Automatic annotation (TrEMBL):
Highest classification ranks of the organism: Bacteria, Pseudomonadati, Pseudomonadota, Betaproteobacteria, Neisseriales
Quaternary structure and partners: Monomer.
Example GO BP: AMP salvage
Functional pathway: Purine metabolism; AMP biosynthesis via salvage pathway; AMP from ADP: step 1/1
Keyword list, A-Z: ATP-binding, Cytoplasm, Kinase, Nucleotide biosynthesis, Nucleotide-binding, Transferase
One Gene Ontology term of the molecular function aspect: AMP kinase activity
Record's catalysed reaction(s): AMP + ATP = 2 ADP
Signal sequence, renumbered to the chain: none
InterPro entries membership: Adenyl_kin_sub, Adenylat/UMP-CMP_kin, Adenylat_kinase_CS, Adenylate_kinase_lid-dom, P-loop_NTPase
Name under which the protein is recorded: Adenylate kinase
Encoding gene (name): adk
Compartments reported by the entry: Cytoplasm
Binding annotation for ATP: 10-15, 123, 132-133, 203
Record-listed E.C. numbers: 2.7.4.3
Length: 217
């Protein structure tokens, strides 16, 4: 199965990706996680991406498309994958189409902007695994520690309110158009179009998960 998780920053893509990848046995491909790994490793890509990410902007399409094409050619992607935070622009979506990557499902997690800053300010992340918590809504078993490894959780550099607002604006300007791009293909009855599923992301984490699973069958 090949899937796309679509939604604003903080909508819960990473949180739901963790459940989906386990249930369906497919790798999660988070371009955000890949870029953060490059930043941490201090590669030329990481050095370039860091500034853009800290400002809440988008990294150039050609760089992202190159990264994703390389990743989906790896052996563990043979039976499918889950895109998290990709595609984020029309050129990124078109690049997948041109490469013949047939997507089965697009799952949109819909959350209004008003809830997003609160979610981001309470977010804590286990960097090595990508597991995500929230101090109020999805707390770890031990404060500040990952449930599985017991390692320390961190706050992301781009979760400052000012950067979150910029990321939201960029989402509305450049990414939200993909809602129409994919849902209209499905509505037009194009046999090769992915199935389009929209989930109310304001519900509790487990309720969102159950609705995603029900939609995926
Ligand atoms: P990326 O890492 O993709 O960030 P994002 O899309 O902004 O999304 P987030 O990871 O912030 O949110 P999420 O939806 O995963 O929410 P989460 O599950 O963590 O990208 C970062 C940057 O990299 C971009 O700004 C850009 O610069 C660059 N980049 C990445 N991909 C790119 C691309 N394709 N092209 C160009 N540039 C790219 O949840 C958030 C919080 O809410 C957590 O604390 C969680 O516990 C909590 N929560 C989740 N669900 C619920 C719920 N149902 N109820 C209550 N709380 C919840
Ligand atoms: Zn994420």
């Amino acid at each position: 199965m090949r899937m796309i998780l679509l939604g604003a920053p903080g909508a819960g893509k990473g949180t739901q990706a963790n459940y989906i990848k386990e249930k369906f046995g497919i790798p999660q491909i988070s371009t955000g996680d890949m870029l953060r790994a490059a930043v941490k490793a201090g590669t030329p890509l990481g050095l370039e991406a860091k500034k853009i990410m800290d400002e809440g902007g988008l990294v150039r399409d050609d760089i992202i498309i190159g990264l994703v094409k390389e990743r989906i050619a790896e052996a563990d992607c043979a039976n499918g994958f889950l895109f998290d935070g990709f595609p984020r622009t029309i050129p990124q979506a078109e690049a997948m189409k041109e490469a013949g990557v047939a997507i089965d499902y697009v799952v949109e997690i819909d959350v209004p902007d008003a809830l997003i800053v609160d979610r981001m300010s309470g977010r804590r992340v286990h960097v090595a695994s990508g597991r995500t918590y929230h101090v109020k809504y999805n707390p770890p078993k031990a404060e500040g520690r990952d449930d599985v490894t017991g390692e320390e959780l961190i706050q992301r550099d781009d979760d400052k309110e000012e950067t979150v607002l910029k990321r939201l604006a960029v989402y509305h300007e450049q990414t939200e158009v993909l809602v129409g791009y994919y849902s209209q293909q499905a509505a037009a009855g194009d046999a090769t179009a992915p199935k389009y599923v929209k989930i109310d992301g304001t519900q509790a984490v487990e309720a969102v998960r159950d609705q995603v699973f029900a939609a995926l069958g």
